TrEMBL record:
GO molecular function: N-acetyltransferase activity
Annotated Gene3D superfamilies: Chloramphenicol acetyltransferase-like domain
Domain of life from the UniProt record: Eukaryota
Pfam families: AATase (PF07247)
Name assigned to this protein: Alcohol acetyltransferase
InterPro entries assigned: Alcohol_O-acetyltransferase, Atf2/Sli1-like, CAT-like_dom_sf
Length: 490
């Protein structure tokens, strides 16, 4: 999904083909926001209050057009951005104390808050940019122990993607470690930011990513999506949790799995030795966990997806001055785990370590092949064939999900320069409830030379909680055991 471009005069979309993927999902309530939460650590006792946060945040907003637009006509197939002349930070920023007696209790409350943000619809979309920043503050005893606060950045997916969510925190961190006064506010009203001129937004995704699709790919994909079911061969349906049901209460659950830096080092070393990556490895570990905890009678096969950052595929029409702006540039690639591969995991006496690395290598090879082919034959290049997104979503009701899980990795947030007052020590990145998408998300992010966090997220009741319990435990146990013993399994 790419955002519609705002232009001077009537604020219309540059191309009505694909910008409505996320605006329509939000309007019908089936996908509401992305969140990236960062733990800001102060080397000295510094209070992160409005007086400190507002100027830094104003600097970021002034430089990033997507943080100062609203969305008009989201209930139609002609949604477009609106120019917001004035941003009141008091409508976007909150400071929330969390009553906790220990660091572990604080962690649980942060995860709970993250789930809450995923479940909120965006009010006044036409006149208020759809993003929030919540400062979560532990009580005095816990704060003294960790010298940190967590900032939850939640945003409408039409504005940007997870990579931009990470980048937002990188920019905010840099601004906090500087002392410049933004020009968009006055000392008397630091919470009010003025933007009299319409911003020059990032270009439409289709205008900067030169998608090309072969005739065989177009025909095959459209037939798969739109062809009569009676004329298609019977598909093997992978395990997918509950079927797509818009009436299930929209409650997002979040479980963070924190992997210490020294364990991450061992994982990276092992991945290099087996010619694979952390993303592919977490796919393989999730497969093993699912296969071992779901009976064969219910889960004969699985499927999963990996979001792919499209920024490396800018074409010659991309404006160099807008390439690094916060924006949404993402596609996705699917992997299949057929019955024989799953049965091999369940076989008594199976060499699970060997199967993990074999699977991880296979997934890595698939991703390398996909990356080499982009932007040819990609699903995003076919969005123009969807004439009515509301009808598109309506037809998914009651159908089985195509994927069992998703593994998304937004990468590493760099360390600030030496001597900086503030640093970031932890990132918790999650998708909200994917009502019409994968049953569960494993969302990876890390701070340089610090913790890697895999944020598990799912819609309550869609996935059995016992399965999430086992996945959370397995990802922690498998990775720690590799670090300590050199193998995932005893």
């Amino acid at each position: 999904m790419r955002p519609p471009m705002l232009v001077h005069g009537p604020y219309t979309a540059a191309d009505p083909c694909s910008e409505h993927f996320s605006s329509t999902r939000h309007h019908i309530g089936i996908y509401r926001c992305v969140t990236v939460t960062c733990r800001y650590h102060a080397d000295s006792p510094v209070q992160l209050d409005a007086a400190k946060l507002y100027p830094a945040l104003a600097t970021v907003i002034a430089d990033q057009p997507m943080l100062r637009v609203g969305i008009l006509d989201q209930d139609t197939n002609q949604a477009h951005f609106s120019h917001i002349h004035e941003v009141d930070l008091r409508s976007h920023v909150s400071f929330k104390p969390l009553d906790c007696e220990s660091v572990s209790e604080y962690e649980a409350l942060v995860a709970e808050q993250q789930g809450w943000h995923h479940d909120q619809l965006w009010p006044e979309l036409e006149s208020r940019p759809p993003w929030r920043l919540a400062v979560l503050q532990p009580n005095a005893a816990v704060h003294q122990e960790i010298q940190s606060v967590d900032l939850v950045f939640a945003f409408h997916h039409s504005l940007m993607d997870g990579t931009s969510g990470r980048r937002f925190h990188e920019l905010l961190l840099a601004a906090l470690n500087q002392s410049s006064q933004p020009t968009c506010s006055s000392p008397d009203t630091p919470h009010l930011l003025s933007f009299p001129n319409a911003p020059k937004l990032p270009e439409a995704q289709e205008d900067v990513i030169p998608f090309t699709n072969s005739i065989p790919y177009v025909v095959k994909t459209l037939w798969s999506e739109l062809g009569p079911e009676m004329l298609k061969p019977r598909k093997v349906v992978p395990w997918h949790g509950k079927a797509i049901d818009f009436d299930i209460p929209h409650r997002t659950r979040v479980r963070p799995v924190d992997i210490p830096h020294e364990v991450v080092g061992s994982l990276l070393k092992a991945c290099r030795e087996h010619s694979t990556s952390l993303t592919a490895l977490f796919h393989a570990l999730t497969l093993v966990s699912y296969a071992l905890h779901l009976p064969a009678s219910e889960a004969e096969s699985f499927a999963a997806s990996t979001p792919i950052n499209l920024r490396p595929y800018f074409g010659p029409n991309a404006d160099p001055e807008r390439k690094d702006l916060l924006r949404c540039l993402i596609t996705s690639f699917s992997h299949e785990y057929p019955a024989d591969a799953v049965a091999a995991v369940r076989r008594p006496g199976a060499d699970l370590d060997s199967l993990v690395w074999k699977t991880a290598k296979q997934i890595k090879d698939e991703l390398v092949e996909k990356l080499a082919s982009l932007p040819k034959d990609d699903i995003n290049g076919l969005m123009k064939y969807v004439g009515d997104w509301f009808d598109f979503w309506e037809k998914k009701k009651g159908k089985t999900r195509t994927e069992s899980w998703e593994v998304s990795n937004i990468g590493i947030l760099p360390k600030p320069p030496p001597g900086a007052t503030w640093s970031i020590t932890r990132l918790l990145f999650t998708n909200g409830s994917m009502v019409a998408g994968p049953a569960l998300g494993v969302n990876m992010a890390s701070a340089e030379k610090s913790t890697l966090t895999a944020g598990i997220s799912w819609q309550d009741t869609v996935v059995p909680e016992a399965l999430v319990d086992s996945l959370e435990r397995d990802l922690s146990t498998y990775t720690r055991r590799l670090h300590e013993a050199g193998t995932f399994f005893p």
